[in-house]
Amino acid sequence: MPDTHRIVPDRPVSLASLPTRAEGFHADRRKAEREFKTLRRKLVDSQFRLYAEGKQKLLVVLQAMDAGGKDSTIRRVFEGLNQQGVRVESFKAPSQRELARDYLWRIHRAVPAKGMIRVFNRSHYEDVLIVRVDSLVPEDVWSRRYEQINQFEKLLADTGTTIRKFFLHISKEEQKERMEKRLADPSRHWKFSRDDLDKRKQWDDYMAAYEDALSRCSTEHAPWYAIPSDQKWYRNLAIARVLTATLDEMDPQFPPPEDGLDRIRVV
Ligand code: ATP
Ligand code: MG
Fold first, then answer.
1. H or E element: which one contains 139?
2. With 0-12 CB in 10 A as exposed, 13-18 as middle and 19+ as buried, what is 170?
3. Angle at 72 between CA 66 and CA 76, to 5 degrees
4. How many CA atoms lie within 13 A of 182 on its CB side?
5. Pocket test residue of 72, 74, 75, 130 for ligand 1, highest count of atoms within 8 A of CB
6. Can you tell me the distance from the alpha carbon of 265 to that of 267, in angstroms, rounded to the nearest whole number?
7. 35: CB partners within 8 A, 6+ apart
8. Which one of the ligands is nearest to 136 CA?
9. If you measure from the C-alpha of residue 61 to the centroid of ligand 2, how many angstroms do you get, rounded to a whole number?
């Protein structure tokens, strides 16, 4: 079940034919919310062990179109985890300092340390998304990045980092509704930028860029998942299922206690 939305490596992806809605996967919102609650408790427990064990690392990548729900996924799925063991890293347009290095420099500095979970709110994939769509570098530069990214993620995997990547797949209609909601609600105005409308006009170009990123960079060691995200309750559940199954596989253990703890008296 956790692999329902996994992108099969090296096969073309057509986002238009991948679902943005839960129908066909889950019919009952109430039940889904109950399961999500249970999985959240598991997640909290597993992360406690991951941190205590201090050996393994988990990297979670979130990508989406504007209003795709990255922020609310972070709030809902990761709330209540041990704050010392989880950190969100948001990647905006690169600074001069970052542009003076290779595009993976700022990414590599942010990868999780032992015992940690890192959530990437946007990521190195921007370097084959906005960079490709807006022609920020020539094609012969961005087209080589898919392979470079696979190699980079392989390095991370080989050195003990588990990687899971989620594309929050929403329909163009759903994005319109969410943007209208933001415009109608002063407390959401800060989330609205005119720039988002320009990107909406480039929707088809973005879909083509996402299709290549997903099909070329979904690998055994760093799989992509295209999560139907028009309904938040299903999006949260689908991501929680993948993450709890992943942490089950990682199976973090509490470190063994010091010898003779049973003979110690605290006075
Ligand atoms: P979000 O839209 O993720 O919720 P935000 O609205 O707080 O974040 P934005 O100013 O929209 O912040 O920041 C993200 C912007 O930075 C996006 O337009 C994204 O495409 C851009 N960006 C991220 N990485 C790169 C990159 N490597 N090159 C160019 N632009 C990038
Ligand atoms: Mg934005």
1. helix 139-142
2. buried
3. 160
4. 19
5. 130
6. 6
7. 237
8. 1
9. 17
Mean pLDDT in runs of 10 for the chain (267 residues)?
Answer: 92 96 93 98 98 98 98 96 96 98 98 98 98 98 98 98 98 98 94 94 98 98 98 98 98 94 91
Please report, as a single letter, which amino acid is at residue 163. I
Name residue 170's beta-bridge partners.
Answer: none
- What is the chain's Cα-based Rg? 20
Q: Which residue's C-alpha comes closest to atom 11 of ligand 1? A: 92
Spelled out in words, what is the top-level CATH class assigned to the domain 15-251?
alpha beta
Q: Where are the domains of the chain?
A: 15-251
* This prediction's pTM: 0.97
How far, in Å, from the CA of 214 to the mean position of ligand 2?
A: 21
**Ligand 1 pocket: which residues have CB below 6 Å?**
66, 70-71, 91-94, 121-122, 126-127, 130-131
Ligand 1 closest atom vs CA 130: 20
pLDDT score of 1: 75
Q: In what order do the strands lie in the sheet with 86-90?
A: 86-90, 117-121, 57-64, 161-169, 224-228
